[in-house]
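Chapter review: from sequence to fold.
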Amino acid sequence: MLSTETAPEADPLPTAPCSVVWSQGRPYVLEPASGSLRWVGTDHLGRPLVLSCADLRDRGWSFRRAN
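The token string follows.
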């Protein structure tokens, strides 16, 4: 179930490079990569993590950090 901090499915993810969204308490930045877009952030251990738009939608996301 999505929290109230998560954007509804009808809200599209941002498409402008360097956009920032939050997912599971971590920020993700949109980066262009070889003609496609990818969301880059870190996992809970601080290791780089790359997500597709579909991955980010499945995890849930928000424009604001949830408290």
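Two observations follow directly from the output. The chain has one helix and four strands. The CA atoms of residues 13 and 43 lie 20 Å apart.
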